Amino acid sequence: MSRRTKAVILGAGIGSRLRPITDTMPKVLVPVAGRPILDYWMEKLVRAGVREALINTHAHPEQVRGYIDDVHACGLMRMNESYEPVLLGSGGTLAANRGWADDADQVVIIYPDNLSTVDLAAMLRFHESHGDPFTMLLFRTPNPRGCGIAELDAEGRVVSFIEKPPEPKSDLANAGVYIVSADAYREMAGAGGRDIGFDLLPRFIGRMRGWDFGGYHRDIGSPADLAAVNEAAPTVFGPCHRSAAPEISRRTAVFLDRDGTLIHDVPYLTDPAKVRVLPGAAGAVRRMREAGSAVVLVTNQSAIGRGLLTEEGLTAIHRELAAQLAREGAALDAIYHCSAAPTTPDRTRIDHPDRKPAAGMILRAARDLGLDLARSWMVGDMVSDVLAGLNAGCRGSMFVRTGCGPVSVRRPMVAGVRVVDDLPAAADTVLAESRR
Q: Are the C-beta atoms of residues 393 and 274 closer than 8 Å to each other?
């Protein structure tokens, strides 16, 4: 690429409509088909030849910093963080980073909370083909009253732009991706506006082109939107879609709850002598591992947080579990536990980033072991188990009836989750889906 291009990723939003998921993770790292939303945009930037990006942060910034470290380890992109203790608004972020374009010819500005098939390299070529300082990505929306709507002249120049118009003049919606010249970036940064859409875009009417790329583009603003893009992602991107961030082996996995799924449910288990692997469970673990899947235990252990059990005591329990599995030729690839005590009896509410139904343990296992969450499963006997799998972006979740399943299955928010008798039946499902 002849021109030097940098990027600004507006990733600091708190994602209030995506709660409770965003109570424990930043919106840009919410998984879609097992990958953080941000990952899709980083890949597009790398493919377009962009090698420097600025991302603003606010909520859960340490998680974004961990992601930045992963990108740097890949060696394909340099990311800078602009932390905002108080949210500045999209225009305020540009103002706080006025010098970002000083050594660039053009800047790509992205709102990353969208799933899109746009080819940024093609958009850059379009931008460089016309003489205007600003290009806005457009898509066809079925709900023009809920979007920023542009009207174009015969040359593709934006002659009107209205946020959420009561009487839309077109269905061409602002996709939240812009390419601007360095001078236009400096003009925006110095204009004093808080919001790009409301305060800054009107300044460029008549000197801004719109590019209708004709592909898939959807905002991820609500749980319903997230469910829709998770369903669409395999079709939209195909099974061979890969990440710009470093990958290890991308192995599939089956994540298991412990009590009521792998072993008999003993409330607040503290005695290794009471560990009893459920009938057929060891064989199920062995079969899944022989088929190539990692089998990972993810278990809430509030007995530690309640002062009923120590970490050493939990280690003794898991040592006995491992011994019983080994006697039947089975083993677990890893065990993750959360010792936090719940703050509410509601098992659908996230009150700790690792405690299920939060996805923290699953996401950490995927990072540690190089697992492909989009092809992995979660199996458990409680609503918190299956919701953890859904929140992590797993391919699917299954209830087993060996624990508290019959009560949990009636919860309406998990309609469509598979229900099976026990872990051997869950293994049968996993293996059958793998063969397909």
A: no
Using the 8-state DSSP alphabet, how is residue 198 labeled?
I
Spatial contact of 373 and 391, defined as CB atoms under 8 Å apart: no
Active site residues: 257, 259
Return the SS3 of 190: coil
Spatial contact of 433 and 426, defined as CB atoms under 8 Å apart: no
Question: Tokens 């010249």 belong to which residue?
Answer: 181
- Fold category of 5-237 in CATH: Spore Coat Polysaccharide Biosynthesis Protein SpsA; Chain A (3.90.550)
Beta strands of 236-324 (E only): which ranges? 253-256, 294-300
Architecture of domain 253-435: 3-Layer(aba) Sandwich (3.40)
**Inter-residue contact 75 to 47 (CB < 8 Å):** no
Asked if residues 333 and 293 have their Cβ atoms less than 8 Å apart, the reply is no
Cα separation, 226 vs 329, in Å, equals 40
Check if the beta carbon of residue 176 is closer than 8 Å to that of residue 102: no
Sign of torsion, CA 211 212 215 220? Answer: positive
**Residue 414: both structure tokens together:** 């998990």
Both structure tokens of 306: 């309640």
Cα-flanking dihedrals φ and ψ of residue 9, to 5°? -110, 115
Ranges of each domain in the chain: 5-237, 253-435
For Cα atoms 361, 363, 365, give the angle at the middle one, nearest 5 degrees.
70
Please give the chain's pLDDT, 436 residues, in tens.
457 899 999 999 888 888 877 887 888 888 777 678 888 888 889 888 888 999 999 988 888 888 888 787 667 788 999 999 999 999 899 999 999 999 999 999 999 988 888 889 899 999 999 989 999 999 888 877 778 888 888 888 998 887 777 877 878 888 889 999 999 999 999 988 888 888 898 889 999 999 988 888 888 888 888 888 877 776 666 543 444 333 323 578 999 999 999 999 999 999 999 999 999 999 999 999 888 788 999 999 999 999 999 999 999 999 999 999 988 888 888 899 999 999 888 888 888 889 999 999 999 888 777 788 888 999 999 989 999 998 898 988 999 999 864 444 434 345 558 889 999 999 999 998 876 6
* 14 contact partners, CB below 8 Å, separation of at least 6: 22, 27, 58, 59, 87
